Amino acid sequence: xxxxxxxxxxxxxxxxxxxxxxxxxxxxxxxxxxxxxxxxxxxxxxxxxxxxxxxxxxxxxxxxxxxxxxxxxxxxxxxxxxxxxxxxxxxxxxxxxxxxxxxxxxxxxxxxxxxxxxxxxxxxxxxxxxxxxxxxxxxxxxxxxxxxxxxxxxxxxxxxxxxxxxxxxxxxxxxxxxxxxxxxxxxxxxxxxxxxxxxxxxxxxxxxxxxxxxxxxxxxxxxxxxxxxxxxxxxxxxxxxxxxxxxxxxxxxxxxx
Length: 257
Description:
With 257 residues, this protein is α/β, with parallel strands linked by helices. 36% of the residues lie in helices and 24% in strands. The chain has helices spanning 4-23, 30-40, 57-62, 76-88, 126-135, 155-165, 175-179, 201-206, 215-224, and strands spanning 47-51, 68-73, 94-98, 111-117, 137-148, 191-200, 236-238, 241-254. A hairpin with a 2-residue loop joins strand 7 and strand 8. Helix 1 runs parallel beside helix 4. The relative contact order is 0.15.
């Protein structure tokens, strides 16, 4: 289980980040949304859970391709924002619930597909969250996770930076660690898609709420990493702007019948 202290950290951070996160253009990039539709091979009759849904960007994206999509998040501000977004877009088959990824309030075998984007690296126990996603997914269904996955040799430096930028960050899994999440669940080897999410570093840091360092210090760390790539961000200047690329992996497991 997550400690109460860490759950409060998540709620504190994402209450502040709700609107900035949703408005950051990179978080609505087509490729990080389409991967769920494509890996899910949606036909329109699916019931989908978006676990750790944040402001509902994935939930709302998937709604036109499914019968029903439920977004669940621990932070009330995120649930409220997702609800408003769906209403403003005229989406009637998406709804948002307040809840814990580690104790999903659904019966076994309830969803055709469960998905999660950018949530597991905030958890002290991502394995338990994955177990819950598996529990509520029907036999023959799919579990799809997309998250940041630094190289193994750089994960320590990556996690140190991300904890400075966002105190609710715990640790990012490497691509291999992510692919192994289903091993103890008997799910075998997942289908893997490797992605890179390009972001303007100033915009990213501007939407963050660090507690122990300044935003300027974070930008200095990224600038110092240009041509070194010790942080797994591929920091570089493009047209005079400091640019980074988050290393992402999407993994899709099929639940045996």
